[in-house]
Automatic annotation (TrEMBL):
Name of the featured protein: Amino acid adenylation domain-containing protein
Keyword match Ubl conjugation: no
SUPFAM superfamilies: Acetyl-CoA synthetase-like, ACP-like, CoA-dependent acyltransferases
GO molecular function: ligase activity; phosphopantetheine binding
Lineage: Bacteria, Pseudomonadati, Pseudomonadota, Gammaproteobacteria, Enterobacterales
Record bears the keyword Ligase: yes
UniProt cross-references to PANTHER family, sorted A to Z: FATTY ACID SYNTHASE, NONRIBOSOMAL PEPTIDE SYNTHETASE
Keyword line: Ligase, Phosphopantetheine, Phosphoprotein
Needed cofactors: pantetheine 4'-phosphate
InterPro entries found in the cross-reference section: AA_adenyl_dom (IPR010071), ACP-like_sf (IPR036736), AMP-bd_C (IPR025110), AMP-bd_C_sf (IPR045851), AMP-binding_CS (IPR020845), AMP-dep_synth/lig_dom (IPR000873), CAT-like_dom_sf (IPR023213), Condensation_dom (IPR001242)
Length: 1048
């Protein structure tokens, strides 16, 4: 009962491109083959388990789909012949039905258990297969849109071999030729052969690259080869990766070992640099410059005071200072004393600072006198870095036994419980990162690095210490300068900055106001902290000549762990975060800690020298996030909570936070994809989409926008989104802001976004003027339960969706007698636009004469079968191209009698009404019209061998017109006197895979009979397909059909 009730609306497989609003049906395929010994082992497994080979293949395919999607509830389509009546077996026609087989992979069962679940599901489905799939869809009323098929988006078919075909004096080889199209997201078509199993995986080009399709095939092949030995293992232990694939992920792409000063400390390396270049510019701030000698002296003074106050290794000293030269000397002084520094942002709320001081058990806070009033009450001793008495000579500090494993800093990051967590980073971790920075970006004494990040933001670590350990200059912005773009642009130019960093949201603002001349000296521009939108990369690349680097890393590591040098010709929708840095290992793992294959999203884990020691005084959370590394004995790895995946190029793509995934109307949505689409609009400056729910409203998407064009209307944004995104990804509300709220680290502060207002329109309803507008306003009001509808209202903005759109088509047909194509509502969702198109269809129908229908059993119209009706509907709704073509070819070697073949073809056409059927509209209903049989000449032409594939592909991709026909084509190609190829293609609405076998057998028998001058031996055809269609509809009115429908 209710087998498909509550099934997921879609299988959310990772794609290389976002799903378009309307599927194009463009497709391609990659080959699939299984060796005979593998197939025999699988057959033996099936026999032991009491299942069929198809059930084994289905269960295995669902395992792969589950691992790729992260879903335990997986629905796969399965075609069945639909010829339960003996009379239908010798007929050509579209009898095939589709079963939706729902796989339950929950609970991490063994594959053996899954097989028995699959067997039960399949057998029940076979018992109820008479129910047309279209009736099931109608009964379930799933969320529908033009971007994907309803109920399932992945198909699996296992075909038997073609019949053994024979013609006198001719050897034959039949071949199914695939059009370059895709009816589903994925369709795995397999055929049993003497050589095992072969076939292809058809994939939608809207969604995937060839490499991704090949990776899916590789995963399935690996799993199937292992199953005879692993059938009793849980699904989490079933292998999808080959040994070569594991080596690539673990070793080849993580081969990052490099030397670095792992036994040194930051302070000692700075002292060595100060001794080497004492007179070089060290820091520039607000018109003041100091050299390395002076900076070292000031830092030494701070260190002496701290040491004499009892500060030493692994103590934590608070730093509550504004950005200044004193901040730099204070940081170095703390490190010289052997302590770790705790940055306390002067903009933080007092309660947060008080918590951090208490949690870190800070004995001393280094601050400035002018900030004392802003420092909360604390038990820590305050030491003023700007105190005049600080210049009083102190005895030289005693050398402390500082080693590379002592703490260098503690930075607090937000916690899910509301309490911030202190991240502890040691010297060796920072030095590993700084060594990589220097090897990669190569600072020289002539370089100037901009220090604009708040000291509480971990990017400040390399901004501060990378130049100071390599003899370059540090340009420090004023306390509030990092937020002032005018000030920054002036400082960048006047101070001759060559290396700088910004978070993408800040960079976007800079790109909009800064001239290329301002950044003419900047050699390397580094971004990080947020995802870099591709549109921003393109804007930057078009305006500036400097190199742009995208770097990624959480606070729980020493700043960054991966790097990607951006290119202006990046063509992916996600800018990669790149490959791991030196002495860093990056893993993408599923929930069972298995390595995710290339292309499969999983959680990103980090291991190596850059890892933090853990969270200060939080062993519980440290144990949750810092786990044993299963791929390296005795090592740890950090669980980031970030979604990522490897690409075939060996670089990582960041896909967002796991906790930013939401489900909208049953679909899993990654809001970052909508952000990217919004930012592609030329009138939008910044955008972020967040989920929002309240007691009055279910979970909905809200878009927050900062506009470049103040005149931009929400309706225009919606139209833009609908060009690229399916309906469920269109935000329900749009909020325009002057600027997005930012955290102190310049990241978007989601918690500070204002609540949305869900409105049905932006303006007062404009009343209708024409009869068409009046009718549409009335219909919309009833459908949308909206008492006041105006002609400038948008159907989807008022709450319309695809199901209501279909109901609207029916109401327009019933009230106005006009057949309005469903596609028009998506193309013209505003009444004033739609009414104009409606008037056009009215005029066209009034000016045309009714099409006469060939009578059958009296004057009864010939209704379509349910499967035919779906294809007819699709043909009118979207441009499906050649996705529903059924092509086939027959190679004939020997002396062919062309006239006999032509006669045989005409006999087959005469026997089967389906081949002479066209489909027309009669009073809003699709009907079949059977065209009288006429003798046709077989079109024949000579082609060279090298051109054969192209001409056969051209036949396979012929575009049929359902209303005019014919809906088949035969072509004969002559390669030589004794070698010919017969090409055939038909629209699926009149033909299925079984029908091709019927066609082939009848052609061979008729040809043979003609050559041998005898009667052909063919089965009688007591009924035709039109009779079946009528019978099918009559049967569905019976109680037994209702019982079968209830199963689904």
């Amino acid at each position: 009962k209710n087998k498909l009730q509550g099934a997921p609306a879609g299988l959310e497989l990772p794609t290389d491109r976002p799903r378009p609003a309307v599927a194009s049906y463009r497709g391609a395929h990659v080959p699939v083959s299984l060796a005979p010994e593998t197939v025999e082992a699988l057959r033996a497994l099936a026999q032991r388990q009491g299942v069929t080979l198809y059930m084994v293949l289905l269960a295995a395919f669902q395992v792969v789909l589950s691992r790729w999607s992260g879903q335990d509830d997986v629905v796969v389509g399965s075609p069945v012949a639909g010829r339960m009546l003996a009379e239908t077996e010798p007929m050509i026609g579209f009898f095939a039905n589709t079963l939706a087989l729902r796989g339950d992979l929950s609970g991490n069962p063994s594959f053996e258990t899954l097989l028995h679940r699959t067997r039960q599901t399949a057998l029940e489905a076979y018992e109820n297969q008479d129910v047309p799939f279209e009736r099931i869809v109608e009964a379930l009323q799933p969320v529908r849109d033009l971007s994907r098929q309803a109920i399932f988006q992945v198909m699996l078919a296992l075909h038997p071999q073609f019949s053994d075909l024979q013609m006198p004096g001719i050897s034959l080889r039949a071949e199914e030729r695939l059009p370059e199209s895709a009816k589903f997201d994925l369709a795995l078509e397999l055929t049993e052969t003497r050589d095992g199993l072969s076939g292809q995986l058809e994939y939608a080009l809207d969604l995937w690259d060839k490499e991704s399709a090949e990776q899916i095939v590789q995963c399935l092949s690996t799993l199937l080869q292992s199953l005879p030995d692993t059938v009793e293992c849980p699904l989490s232990q079933q292998p999808l990766l080959t040994a070569a694939g594991q080596y690539q992920l673990l070793t080849e792409w993580n081969n990052t070992a490099e030397d670095y000063p792992h036994d040194q400390c930051i302070a000692s390396l700075f002292e060595a640099q100060a001794e080497q270049t004492p007179d070089a510019l060290a820091v520039y701030f607000d018109g003041e410059e100091i050299d390395y000698r002076e900076l070292d002296r000031r830092a030494e003074q701070v260190a002496s005071r701290l040491v004499h106050a009892g500060i030493g290794p692994d103590c934590v000293v608070g730093l509550f200072v504004e950005r200044s030269i004193e901040m730099i000397s204070g940081l170095l002084g703390i490190l010289k004393s052997g302590a770790a520094y705790l940055p306390l942002d002067t903009d933080y709320p007092p309660d947060r600072i008080a918590y951090m001081l208490e949690d870190a058990q800070v004995p001393v806070v280094l601050t400035q006198r002018r900030l004392l009033a802003r420092l909360p009450e604390t038990s820590a001793c305050c030491m003023f870095i700007d105190d005049e008495t600080s210049e009083t000579a102190l005895p030289p500090r005693k050398a402390r036994n500082i080693n590379a494993h002592h703490l260098a800093y503690v930075i607090y990051t937000s916690g899910s419980t509301g309490r911030p967590k202190g991240v502890m980073i040691s010297h060796f971790s920072i030095l590993n990162h700084l060594s990589w920075m220097q090897r990669t970006h190569r600072l020289t004494p002539d370089d100037r690095v901009l220090q604009n990040a708040p000291v509480s933001f971990d990017v400040s670590v390399w901004q501060l210490f990378w130049p100071l350990l390599n003899g370059a200059g540090l340009v420090v912005t004023s306390p509030e300068g990092h937020r002032d773009l005018s000030y920054l642009s002036s400082l960048i130019e006047s101070s001759r900055v060559t290396v700088m960093h910004m978070v993408p949201s800040m960079l976007q603002a800079l790109v909009d106001i800064v001239s290329p001349h301002t950044l003419r000296r900047v050699r390397d521009f580094i971004v990080g902290g947020e995802a870099l939108p591709p549109s921003l990369l393109q804007d930057f690349s078009q305006r500036f000549d400097c190199r742009l680097h995208n770097q990624y890393g959480p606070t729980e590591t020493s700043v960054e762990v991966s790097w990607h040098q951006c290119s202006a010709d990046e063509d992916r929708l996600v800018v990669p975060i790149g490959a791991p840095l030196s002495n860093t290992r990056l893993y993408v793992l599923d929930r069972y800690f298995n390595l995710c294959p290339v292309g499969v999203p999983g959680e990103l884990y980090i291991a190596g020298a850059g890892l933090a020691r853990g969270y200060l005084n939080r062993p519980d959370i440290t144990a949750e996030r810092f786990l044993p590394d299963p791929f390296s004995d005795g090592q740890r790895m950090y669980r980031t909570g970030d979604l990522a995946r490897w690409t075939a190029r060996g670089v990582l793509e960041y896909l967002g936070r796991i906790d930013h995934q939401v489900k909208i109307r049953g679909f899993r949505v990654e809001t970052g994809e909508i952000d990217t689409c919004l930012l592609a609009h030329p009138g939008i400056h910044q955008a972020i989409v967040v989920p929002w729910s309240s007691e009055q409203k279910p979970l909905q998407l809200v878009a927050y926008l900062v506009l470049k064009d103040p005149a931009l209307q929400t309706a225009e944004v919606q139209v833009h989104l609908r060009r690229f995104l399916p309906e469920h990804m269109i935000p329900a509300a749009f909020v325009t802001l002057g600027a997005l709220p930012l955290t102190p680290n310049s990241k978007v502060d989601r918690k500070a976004l204002p609540p949305p207002t869900f409105v049905t329109r932006q303006r007062q309803a404009v009343p209708p003027r024409t009869s068409e507008e009046f009718a549409l306003c009335e219909i919309w009001g009833l459908l949308l339960n909206c008492p006041e509808v105006g002609i400038e209202d948008d159907f989807f903005a008022l709450g319309g969706h695809s199901l209501l759109a279909m109901r609207m088509v029916a109401m327009v047909r019933a009230r106005l007698g006009v057949e309005l194509p469903l596609r028009e509502i998506f193309d013209a969702p505003v009444i004033v636009q739609l009414a104009s198109r409606l008037a056009h269809y009215q005029a066209r129908e009034e000016g045309s004469s009714p099409i006469g229908i060939t009578p059958r059993d009296g004057n009864q119209p010939l209704r379509l079968s349910f499967s035919q009706e779906r294809l007819w509907f699709l043909d009118r709704l979207v441009e499906a191209g050649v996705a529903y073509n059924v092509p086939w070819s027959l190679e004939m070697r020997g002396e062919l009698q062309t006239a006999a073949l032509e006669w045989a073809i005409n006999q087959v056409i005469c026997r089967h009404e389906s081949l002479r059927t066209v489909f027309r509209n009669s009073n809003g209903t699709a009907v079949q019209t059977i065209v009288p049989a006429e003798n046709e000449s077989l079109v024949s032409q000579s082609v060279p061998e090298y051109a054969l594939d192209n001409v056969l592909q051209t036949v396979a991709e012929y575009k049929f017109e359902l209303q005019t026909g014919p809906l088949y084509r035969f072509r004969l190609y002559r390669l030589s006197a004794e070698r010919h190829v017969l090409a055939f293609v038909a629209h699926h609405i009149i033909c299925d895979g079984w029908s091709v076998d019927v066609l082939a057998r009848e052609l061979c028998e008729l040809y043979t009979a003609r050559v041998e001058e005898r009667e052909a031996i063919l089965p009688e055809l007591p009924v035709q397909f039109a009779d079946f269609a009528l019978w099918q509809r009559q049967m569905l009115d019976k109680p037994e059909a209702a019982r079968r429908l209830a199963y689904w």
